[in-house]
């Protein structure tokens, strides 16, 4: 396969964060609904550019690729995404803070 040699892959167990599990689930669900294909995801990952690819974590790259494909599909507009992100940011800087504000 193409790409650059990055050395050995660490096979140690990884304790996945909740958001990483959600990214994985979102990828599976969106693919099953026909919003994008594996080829579309790969294209979005390859189009990121080396700087973005090297500075983002594995799941950050996946959510960026999912987002790009959903935008291209027309699931939402960039404006709608921005508005929703602002609403979520108003909840608080962390999930715990948002939950605390919600429960108050």
Task: Give a description of the structure.
- About 65% of the residues lie in helices and about 0% in strands.
- It contains six helices and no strands.
- Helix 1 runs parallel beside helix 4 (about 60-75) and helix 2 crosses helix 4 (about 60-75).
- Among the domains are: about 35-75, no CATH class; about 80-104.
- This is Nitrile hydratase subunit beta.
Can you lay out the helices and strands and say which pair or pack?
Elements (H helix, E strand, L loop, with lengths): L17 H15 L5 H10 L2 H6 L2 H16 L4 H12 L5 H9 L1
Spell the H/E element sequence: HHHHHH
> C-alpha Rg, in Å?
16 Å
| DSSP E strands, number | 0
How helical, in percent, are the residues?
55-70%
How would you describe the oligomerization state of the chains in this entry? single chain
Strand content: under 5%
Could you tell me the mean pLDDT? Answer: 89
Query: What would the principal axes of the Cα set say about the shape?
Result: globular
Number of helical regions: 6
Domain Nitrile hydratase beta subunit-like N-terminal: 1-96
Protein name: Nitrile hydratase subunit beta
InterPro entries: CN_hydtase_beta-like_N (IPR049054), CN_hydtase_beta_C (IPR042262), Elect_transpt_acc-like_dom_sf (IPR008990)
Which descriptors would you attach to this protein?
104 residues, mainly alpha, 65% helix, 6 helices
Summarize the structure.
With 104 residues, this protein is an all-alpha fold. Helices cover 65% and strands 0% of the residues. Among the domains are: 35-73, no CATH class; 78-104.
């Amino acid at each position: 396969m193409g790409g650059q040699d990055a050395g050995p892959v660490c096979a140690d167990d990884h304790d996945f964060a909740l958001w990483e599990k959600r990214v994985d689930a979102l990828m599976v669900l969106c693919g099953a609904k026909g919003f994008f294909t594996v080829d579309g995801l790969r294209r979005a990952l390859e189009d990121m550019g080396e700087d973005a690819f090297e500075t983002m974590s594995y799941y950050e790259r996946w959510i960026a690729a999912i987002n790009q494909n959903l935008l291209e599909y027309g699931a939402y507009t960039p404006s709608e995404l921005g508005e929703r992100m602002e609403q979520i940011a108003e909840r608080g800087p962390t999930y715990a803070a948002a939950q605390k504000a919600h429960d108050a």
